[in-house]
Amino acid sequence: MARLPSHRLAALLLLLLVVVSPCHAAAAAAAGGGQRPTRPKAVAMPVVRDGATRQYVATFQQRTPRVAVKAVVDLSGGATLWVDCDAAAGYASSSYAGVPCGSKPCRLVESPSCSYIASCLGSPPSPACLNRTCTGHAENTVTSSVGRGNVVTDVLSLPTTFPSAPVRQGPLATAPAFLFTCGPTSLTQGLAAGAAGMASLSRARVALPAQLAGTFRFSRKFALCLPSVDAGVVVFGDARYVFDGMDHSNSLLYTPLITRTTDRSSEYFISLKRVVVDDRAVPLNATLLDVGTKLSTVSPYTVLETSIHEAVARAFAASMATAGIPRVPAVAPFELCYDGSKVESSAITGEPAVPVVFELHVQSEVRSKVAPWMVSGANLMARADGGALCLAVVDGGAAPEAPVVIGGHMMEEILLVFDLEKSRLGFSPNLGAFGLSCSKFRLG
Ligand SMILES: *[C@@H]1O[C@H](CO)[C@@H](O)[C@H](O)[C@H]1NC(C)=O
Ligand SMILES: *[C@@H]1O[C@H](CO)[C@@H](O)[C@H](O)[C@H]1NC(C)=O
């Protein structure tokens, strides 16, 4: 007796659904330029490393009709996504819109102002040529050059699966009005071939993490898995970190993300307490470390202030000498290089099995405790010309912007989870220790 009404209800609902669905579909098509509005839990942005520049290049889908756009991953200070919108660069889209001067989104970009133009000099209106439009800074953080351009919105899509099928174009999540800045063509100088701009992962309000979280209503959180070979990924939102069927979500160590009052707060800093080589703390100027350690994908290698570089190199050289590994002449930009043929390779990963235990002791989530960031041979050493294997750190001079900058090479094939809600960074060991790599990440 209780079942009959629910049967009827189901039939009624079915009828309603049949009647309602055509206009529902039409509304969705009208709203999203043909794409169904989506509310994914997480989206993935594939990343590869460019061989020539060692920059990490991300791919996303943008515009109408949709095209794949490449931009250099900017985990440093950049404020937003910027791309070259000049007509000559081939920006073509029916879905872009200028951001009005003085509007709320306009106030979120760096150095906003308003542009008035007399004409587009014969070219049709485009994102690069709009009247009475908000303009803002676009920064090439590789070359430290800044340009100005229009602030516009356009459709931006990212796959909800990884790896995403490049031909079939698997399921995509679409942000109908993703805000970005147009950079002039000249600003792309110094970027990897094919890159049209830079995709900022900073904590700025209009950088990718916050903007995607706002659009899709997921957490302000992203995971960065930089590739040394094959494919890497940036995963935005609430994902389980599954590699080859194994969930690594609960096997991370955490360190607080700190804000430096002396600096632009959109960069990521952690608190490095000491550098430990073969169980001995390297004697360092603690005052310098207190400034904070920066994470940057724009720096290919880890950069150390001169006195820190000297002390770390001395400790490392002593350990290598004890292990009997012969030194070879330095190969720029590195100082300490060794005969690669005398260093065994790991049976699992093929990476150099350096006979030195190198650890970064970072602040743990528990006050007064440290968390060990074990730097594996793959992250510590770089292969240079002539078979040399070099300590992959460089001297940043006596007064660098930050005394320690952890660069891309030291972050490769590691799962790094930037949790901006909880203001903490989760890190895994090098995935090679589990026979894994970033390319084994699976989403959806
Ligand atoms: C741009 O806007 C200004 C102010 O409204 C106007 O004077 C000017 O003619 C406009 N330019 C174009 C190309 O429409
Ligand atoms: C440590 O670094 C600080 C900041 O650069 C500097 O003022 C101080 O002189 C350094 N101390 C030593 C012992 O070198």
Automatic annotation (TrEMBL):
Sequence ranges assigned to domain Peptidase A1 in this UniProt record: 56-428
BP terms from Gene Ontology: proteolysis
Protein name (Swiss-Prot/TrEMBL): Peptidase A1 domain-containing protein
Signal sequence, renumbered to the chain: 1-25
Pfam families, A to Z: TAXi_C, TAXi_N
Family named by the database record: Belongs to the peptidase A1 family.
Organism the protein comes from: Oryza barthii
Keyword vocabulary terms for this entry: Signal
Keyword Hydrolase included in the entry's annotation: no
GO molecular function terms listed in the Swiss-Prot or TrEMBL record: aspartic-type endopeptidase activity
